[in-house]
Amino acid sequence: MNGLTPSRRILCALDTTDQQTAFDLAENLRDHVGGVKLGLEFFGACGPTGFDHVAQSGMPIFLDLKLHDIPNTVAKAISALMPLNPLIMTVHTSGGGAMMKAAAQAATEAAQNIPNGNINYVRPLIVGVTILTSMDESDLQDIGLRPPISAQVVRMARLAQVSGLDGVVCSPFEIAAIREACGPDFKLVVPGIRPVGSSRGDQKRTMTPREAIERGADYIVIGRPITEADDPIKAAQDIARELD
Ligand code: C5P
Fold first, then answer.
1. CA pair distance 170, 160, nearest whole angstrom
2. What is the pTM of this model?
3. Quick check: 143 and 119 in contact, CB under 8 A?
4. Highest CATH level, class, for 6-243
5. Which residues approach ligand 1 with their CB closer than 6 A?
6. Residue of 61, 64, 221 to test ligand 1 pocket, by largest number of atoms within 8 Å of CB
7. pLDDT, tens digit (0-9, with 9 covering 90-100), for 21-42
8. Where are the domains of the chain?
């Protein structure tokens, strides 16, 4: 567990293609959440320049690109992304042990080599995506994996841990089983969070912010319940207040 107060563990997913919208939200959410998440939608549209712009808000950023490729390519991608100084980066655990090892090592090496003589990269947490929270047991069977989801997720989490990753992304329902298998220091980043009364959207395995924190999430990722609320700042404030 990471010692942060509960509301500082909220990372708000800014799934937008507009740099200014992301920056404004990041700035306005600063007093209520611990950081923001930028993913494929934002990075595809705005790239590293957009990332740097949002970083000027002062918010820590989880760069969620869910890398999945051969070990050499993933390692090179991690090295290339290091100058952005993200708080967290993601790779898919289904890419295998060698790929995860290469990813973790690339982050460590880039953080040790001080580039340009004076800029020091802080090593981000490298975290593995297990089974997406938009998938249920029948989706798992469709891709040839055997249910139950929890057993599959624990297996992936153990592999991530022995391969040198700092933690995994998992649904709130798998927190307890992963904690038991991987111990208290393994970081659990948990999306699929829905405050009481908000729409599930495409998420299938959801839980409230409080339940997820009580079960032991290090970070909870909340997107649409904040960003698509009539008043996103108030939505974040309400969640933060409920948690703290
Ligand atoms: O809007 P919502 O709260 O569903 O956003 C959740 C965010 O977490 C999205 O950006 C999604 O890409 C991400 N995510 C997820 N499930 C995972 C990994 C990441 O929903 N397993």
1. 12
2. 0.93
3. no
4. alpha beta
5. 13, 15, 39, 64, 129, 132-133, 169, 191-192, 201, 203, 221-224
6. 221
7. 999 999 999 999 999 999 999 9
8. 6-243
